Amino acid sequence: MEKFDMIKNTLLNLRFASIIEILIVAWLLYKLYWLIRETRAEQLLKGILIILALIPISYISNMTMLYFLLSRAITLGVLSFVIIFQPEIRRALEHLGRSAFNDRHITPEERAWEEMITEIATAVESMSQSKTGALIAIEQQTMLREIISTGTMIDAKVSAPLMENIFVPNTPLHDGAMIIRNDRIAAAGCMLPLTTSSEISKKLGTRHRAAIGLTEVSDAAVIVVSEETGVISLALNGKLVRNYDKDRLKAILLKILFKKQLKDEESMREKVKKWLKDKSTTSS
């Protein structure tokens, strides 16, 4: 009974600063999970969270031995997490720093994006000149797990030579789609949903219909190189625009990906500012 009274008193004594503190911690935890999702750190983090949930349960239930073991295990677990996943933690801290201060100088992450897009544009231009058919989907906010599962896992850094090699005619993966997640080629030989729109030109082949089909159900940006003409096309939001060259393709991809990133960060800041303003008005 005393424990419930303590919880009740804590809730009644919450101050405005305490609420802000809780929201900041919640936001940090959310950003941490967003950064490590679908990485090797995610499963370990889930295990730590389960242990954290069991610790208060074992304490309240007077399970002395279990509480002792779990409290010691969590100390070792957190230390192991920091040591093993130091690179992921460093990237997370860098990302939080960029989000907090909005420095529009070119950051390491932006340089990585630009290098990746340059590799894509270089590969696409080369395949266009040789009339090598290609279908490349760049994942954004909508996760493409189901699409990736239909192909062959690759998990390799994006590079023009590798991309060109994958789409060489009569090789096992050249007919399907390549999925790019972050700065890595997640999979190749993937199957995309075909569009059912009757407004699509009859001259467009299966690759173009698959590109449009994926963008109708996700926010992915899909690049198509025609095997017949070598024409470069880009599908986005259910629309297909043709006749891109290397420079124009690179420019539009930079605009799409950076605009999306900036929009998400700006949206988060505006929500926090609005919440703080509303709370300040209510308090006064």
Word description of this protein:
The protein has 284 residues and is an alpha+beta fold. It folds into 2 domains: 2-101, no CATH class; 108-262, DNA integrity scanning protein, DisA, N-terminal domain (YojJ-like (1). Helices cover 61% and strands 14% of the residues. It has 10 helices and 7 strands. Strands 2-4-3-1-5-6-7 form a 7-stranded mixed sheet, sandwiched between helices. Strand 3 and strand 4 (184-190) form a beta hairpin. It starts with a helix and ends with a helix. Mean pLDDT is 78; it is low at 98-108.
Supply database-style keywords:
elongated; 2 domains; alpha+beta
Shape: elongated
Please count the helical segments.
10
Total number of β-strand segments? 7
- The helix/strand order is HHHHHHEHEHEEHEEEH
Biggest sheet record: 7 strands, mixed
Helix content: 55-70%
Report the portion of residues in β strands.
Answer: 5-15%
CATH homologous superfamily classification of the largest domain: DNA integrity scanning protein, DisA, N-terminal domain
Might you state the CATH topology name of the largest domain? Answer: YojJ-like (1
Mean pLDDT: 78
Q: Which structural category fits the helices and strands?
A: alpha+beta
What Rg do the Cα atoms give?
A: 24 Å
| Contiguous runs where pLDDT drops below 50 for at least 5 residues | 98-108
Number of domains: 2
CATH class term of the largest domain: Alpha Beta
Widest sheet, order of strands? 2-4-3-1-5-6-7
CATH architecture of the largest domain: 3-Layer(aba) Sandwich
N-end to C-end Cα span: 36 Å
